[in-house]
């Protein structure tokens, strides 16, 4: 009501300014040429009054409209809360019937496990590389999310890769039948009704059968008894089960909350690699072994080195005791340059020659060996041939099936080395092929 009253008063003021402006315009139009500077100055002041009044009115109107919008939003929130309070509390209740049979009467202890929706977890890792010791410390986390409506306080968690929501039965294929039906013409688009219905059914079935984004917490796995060891993992049928040490509190907010599963420290071997065709950086790669007693599931790895957080890498599935490799980020003390030295067609447009120079320079304080990875086209057509030029620097490794070449460049501090790649692609007359550069 206050905003409405303010806007009404503002409308009256705007009407007064508009009426005054009309009087000023009339005075200007009736002004005679013999009048002095005094009347001209008065008209200028009148025009300034109109301009300032209109500007001030616009500012007041904008502020009032903003207050009206804020009040409307607050009113909507309050109205929704009122509606919520008016409704009776909604609760979901389920019953479980259990029949027990015993040879002799006596006390019995019953444990009930059940599956609930809106809860899941996914693996995540921290990998911290100690360059001085040459060790890699890996911490295995489970990122637990739940929106069940109930906060889990000081709960014992058992994480499982089982997916009870997918079901235990294999989906059945239905026959695909072709039938002659009349086509329905809609403008320039022709759509068969049965085909459209089939696509819709397939989409619905695919959505129903699609697995969830993250594995669900173990439903059938009972929580450990007090006094039992709640660490390690084991294989249950085709799923892995991870017992989280200690207790954890997971609020029902749907956000990921980290819980530690296990950790290990392992001696690591490092190497330096660059693929300058894709990125002009040298990456530090680490090779280690899964020293934990449980499998490492595929997931993101947060990489840390002496300079701090380096970025996030990816880890594939690694069985216990098996080796794995992860990237430890960019090695800033090594610089890479790549230049095109040849890119020419023959006069008959049947041969295309391309050449590249790759230079690696060390600005570090210790010797380093960098593996340069490049590739050349591989022909899958008999008439198209690829020939490496004799000026190409002999690689340490060559895979003719994939076209990947590897050179290993040992560098001392301050040294730079260069490798050259040049090849010619020959096409038959009247044909060309495309290859990504």
Mind explaining what this structure looks like?
The protein is an alpha+beta fold. The strands form 6 sheets. Strands 15-12-11-18-21-20 form a 6-stranded mixed sheet, with no helix packed on it. The longest helix is centred in the first third of the chain and has 50 residues. About 13% of the residues have low confidence.
Write the layout of secondary structure elements.
Blueprint: H1 2-29, H2 37-86, E1 119-130, E2 135-146, E3 152-155, E4 158-160, E5 184-186, E6 189-191, H3 193-209, E7 233-236, E8 239-243, E9 248-250, E10 257-267, E11 269-274, E12 283-289, E13 299-305, E14 308-315, E15 323-330, E16 334-345, E17 351-362, E18 368-375, E19 385-388, E20 397-399, E21 404-411, E22 416-426
Parallel strand pairs: 1-13, 11-18
Antiparallel strand pairs: 1-2, 2-10, 3-9, 4-8, 5-6, 7-8, 11-12, 12-15, 13-14, 16-17, 17-22, 18-21, 19-22, 20-21
Helix pairs in contact: 1-2
Q: Average pLDDT across residues? A: 80
Helix content: 10-25%
Largest sheet: 6 strands, mixed
Task: List the secondary-structure elements in sequence, H or E.
Answer: HHEEEEEEHEEEEEEEEEEEEEEEE
- Helical run tally: 3
Question: What is the number of E strands?
Answer: 22
What percentage of the residues does DSSP assign to strands (E)? 35-45%
Indicate the overall shape.
extended
**Strands across the major sheet, in which order?**
15-12-11-18-21-20
* Structural class assignment: alpha+beta
